[in-house]
Amino acid sequence: MSTRAQRFDLLPSSVLARWEDFLKWDDRTYFPQLLGITVEELRRDYARMRLPWRSELNQPQGLMHGGAISTLIDTVVVPAIGTAYSTPRPFSTIEMSVRYLGPVRKEDLVAEGWVTRRGKRVVFCDVEVTTSTSVVVASGHLIYIVGSETTAEAAGNG
After folding, report:
1. Of the ranges 48-57, 77-86, 121-130, 142-151, which one carries the lowest mean pLDDT score?
2. What does the alpha-carbon distance between residue 33 and residue 110 come to, in Å, rounded to a whole number?
3. What is the β-pairing status of strands 38-43 and 91-100?
């Protein structure tokens, strides 16, 4: 467990049960699954995920492609945001900035994402991405818009 994770509350078992299969869906494959992203830890307002290195994620110069890193950044905050709600709600990225701080060569990445501020409909998040040897290689700042429970039910997500 990371030091950062300890700052966030553990999830109630009912919430953990709703989110423990995140990225493990059998009925359909989504983009983060194609990249191989896996969940390592979930807490209220916090998540940690891993992107295992493989050569298909590289760009021609032998470095991990920035698109793979930005997908990890955008994905890690989803359960950090969603675990705070007692019922499913639709939400999506409305703004994302990524700062690439160093190259990634043949190493897994670990991303920690957390909520920094939660409004009624807008949630702000930060992300730090490190290599498996704890070298910080990227950071992200994201803003998400969150719909209401009734919107989720009307969209068939509830």
Report:
1. 142-151
2. 15
3. unpaired
Q: What span, in angstroms and rounded, lies between the C-alpha atoms of 51 and 35?
A: 7
Distance between CA atoms of residues 80 and 114, nearest Å:
6
Average pLDDT, the chain: 91
State how far Cα 10 lies from the chain centre. 17
Query: Structure tokens of 66?
Result: 């920035």
Do 115 and 45 meet the contact criterion of CB atoms below 8 Å apart? yes
DSSP string, 105-151: -S--EEEEEEEEEE-SSEEEEEEEEEETT--EEEEEEEEEEE--HHH
Domain locations along the chain: 5-154
According to DSSP, residue 5 is labeled G
3-state secondary structure of 32: helix
Pairwise CA distance, residues 101 & 96, whole Å: 16
The pTM of this model reads 0.90
Q: State which H helix or E strand residue 94 sits in.
A: strand 91-100
- Write down the architecture of domain 5-154 according to CATH: Roll (3.10)
Using DSSP bridges, classify how beta strands 136-146 and 122-131 pair: parallel, antiparallel or unpaired: antiparallel
Q: Which amino acid is at 62?
A: G
